[in-house]
Amino acid sequence: MRRHPGSPGLGLLTLLLLVLAIASRAGPVTPPKAAIATAHPLATEAGFSILADGGNAFDAAVTISAVLAVVEPYNSGLGGGGFWLLHRAADGHEVMLDGRERAPLAAHPDLYLDARGQFVPELALDGPLAAAIPGLPAAFCHLAEHYGRLPLAKSLEPAIGLARDGFPVDESYRRMATWRLAALRASPAASAQFLPGGEVPPLGYLLRQTDLAATLTALATQGCDGFYAGPLAERLVSGVRAAGGIWSLEDLARYRVVERAPIVAEYQGWRLVSAAPPSSGGVLLAQMLNMLAVLPPDQLKGEPRAHALVEVMRRAYRDRAAYLGDPDQVAMPIARLTDPDYAAGLIRDYDPARATPSRVGDGCEPETFEEGRDTTHFSILDRDGNRVAATLSINYPFGSGFVPPGTGVLLNDEMDDFSAQPGVANVYGLVGGEANAIAPGKRMLSSMSPTFLESERGVAILGTPGGSRIIGMVLQGILAAVEGAPVDDWVARPRIHHQYLPDRVEYEPGALDAAGQAAMRSRGHRLEPVERGFGNMQAIHWDRVGGRVEAASDPRGAGRALVR
Ligand code: DON
Hints:
Radius of gyration: 24 Å
Number of strands: 18
Oligomer: single chain
Bound molecules: 6-diazenyl-5-OXO-L-norleucine
Distance between the termini: 52 Å
Helix content: 25-40%
Largest sheet: 7 strands, antiparallel
């Protein structure tokens, strides 16, 4: 048969039809709108302003991280670290940028023990001995250089402006500063920066941070050397050492961010992409989803659901304590832990009628951690389809409460995320062993879980703060997304939590009704209501089938989610 010149051949036509069929199943390749969800309205606005100036999602990630460092100084900052999960639309490249803090080179396993060998929690929480080497500034440089379109100086402009000209103090600031008043007052530079006149500022007070503006400007003009070397590095180290800390110039000079392959798993046709060690988030999410996948479907609906969730959380958190730590220093059986067959074995002894007791008896029964919104998460989707999910932290509210004089940099107290002694709980009640023991230059195990979920139907971008509760919260957000619930529901639904030890189920108001509570108790669960909600989830949903983008900010917090 002679073909008409210019008409596609049969093979080409078939190929074209196939491509069209795949494209129509997978929906359009780029989203109709961009979306940003962050924990602070000023950060969301700054993110959009950088997109409007020609930046992509990765430039916006720098801008938002830097603005949050200024306007939410209690949650994250230049003196802290975080994980940025990236998806580059052009080639599908997916990576986790690990800007986690590292222990100083002079750190050792007995750092927080007294003369009798007892753990002294305050040493790992308050003051410069609690501070690890920050990763946030290095992550800014890496993002700008390797992924962004704009120079770092441009992306940092909004944060510099807000540090120099001030931002209005809000309720969260006042609550967190009141909570950490003693630690802040112990540091004269922190007090001067965060407690004008020595007191928590009133609502609406315009808080200016001139030292921080200068430090951000040094980063903008000199890049990472403006922070990890030169006069600023010297001020950081001498300030820390003068107040009893152990940092050295070598610590700063040797800090590096690391690109790591994310954890990937499958659940009901959705592809999970989440944080790899040194976060425990992705591994535990994969384990929990793999366990849920083999439970009888009736266990995931109605009244039995809370029991099923608790039992998968319990088993995953047990492995967290046993196996996970810094991948650069510890060998971990990640492939095995995330294998569906392994999960099936873990959940084999699931009893629909009985709680499986955790191993208790090591005396670890910490107080309920009431604050659950410090640390911060943001999600970004740009018009090209680039995605960022980032969770950033200085650990406790206002971190260590310590600012080295003349730097404006509030230091983290992330050292408390190490396991100071086997079986001894940290501030979130988490226990651990050798894998997460303190060692020089080591990254401490985290729960931060920036996450993507993707299928033919759409894309979800989500995460939250909340210490040890983060992973279970993200699990509950994922399940809502997979069910097809609206994005507002992912972030708002009342939550439950179990972390193996202590062996108790924490639940938010509304998470278990009276009958649900009775049913849980009859199975042998110990229940503990948490009066104030926990978490501050920021989520984006790109519905590829409906061609819509929507975003939501947790009603427990004061964030803002916008689609434009
Ligand atoms: O990396 C971690 O897992 C913790 N430092 C996060 C702290 C946190 O989310 C505090 N929120 N309540």
